[in-house]
Design a protein that fits this description.
four-stranded antiparallel beta sheet; eight-stranded mixed beta sheet; Nucleoside Triphosphate Pyrophosphohydrolase; 32% strand; single chain; 250 residues
């Protein structure tokens, strides 16, 4: 029996050295957006609102993260602790999320859009330490520009990392010095764009007889060369941003 179109495209998208890992998410079918959900207004996206929301220390039942991980791991073992920084840069037009595009030669998540971050080390003394160290190493953003406001629930990636997203406000101007071995470019997306569910695309396909799905949030904006590019934000990064939306919307 011929494969269904969505199964054929998913198989092509997942073809690679590790079965089930999505190589080209662009070709995985879009099954809908969340335009029915309200976009967050400026009253929920300014600094005061963010600080107040994280300071409230939500209790059990206050909210539930929509995504806790990518699904089935591609290896056996215990996920390694890691952390990422979710940097919200203060700009005249409002807060913007700093993101990176990873270089193409990396073993994990090559070429993908990511938050700065990585595996934890004992000397970090927790997720905040990891997020700050990795951000300084990857993009050269010094700690004096960063104000931590809180953490989001942990997220398990398909590649075996137990990631804590650390949310922070970043004061500009600053100078970045990206590590060319890990980071191809650094760019920013308005927080308001990412907190509008109409821009959240749901992708779904079948792999190994089981349904799989992920979110994407494509952004068109200027790159380092001044020209407009598409930045395809998807997977774990998009899922953590969606959890941030649910958290702030509660």
């Amino acid at each position: 029996m011929p494969a269904k179109p969505e199964e054929s495209r998913a198989a092509a998208a997942s073809r690679g050295p590790v079965p089930g890992r999505i190589i080209d998410p662009h070709v995985v079918p879009i099954v809908g957006t969340d335009a029915h959900l309200p976009a967050l207004g400026v009253e929920r996206l300014d600094e005061a609102a963010l600080r107040a929301r994280f300071a409230a220390r939500p209790g059990v039942g206050d909210w539930t993260p929509e995504f806790s991980g990518d699904g089935r791991l591609i290896f056996e073992g215990t996920p390694a602790p890691a952390a990422v920084l979710v940097p919200l840069v203060r700009r005249p037009a409002g807060l913007a999320v700093m993101l990176t595009r990873r270089t193409e030669h990396l073993r994990d998540h090559a070429g993908q859009i990511s938050f700065p971050g990585g595996r934890s080390e004992p000397a970090d003394h927790g997720p905040v330490g990891t997020a700050l160290r990795e951000t300084e190493e990857e993009v050269g953003l010094a700690r004096r520009y960063i104000e931590i406001v809180g953490e989001l629930p942990r997220y398990i990636t398909i590649t075996g990392y137990d990631v804590t997203p650390v949310v922070a406000l970043v004061t500009s101007p600053f100078v970045l010095r990206p590590d060319a071995s890990e980071v191809a470019e650094v760019f920013e997306v308005p927080l308001a764009f990412l907190m509008a569910p109409a821009h959240h695309q749901h992708h779904r396909f079948t792999w190994d007889g089981k349904p799989r799905q992920f979110l994407s949030m494509p952004w068109h904006g200027p790159g380092p060369d001044g020209r407009e590019h598409e930045y395809f934000i998807w997977g774990a990064t998009a899922a953590m941003l969606r959890n941030l939306y649910r958290f702030l919307a509660t």
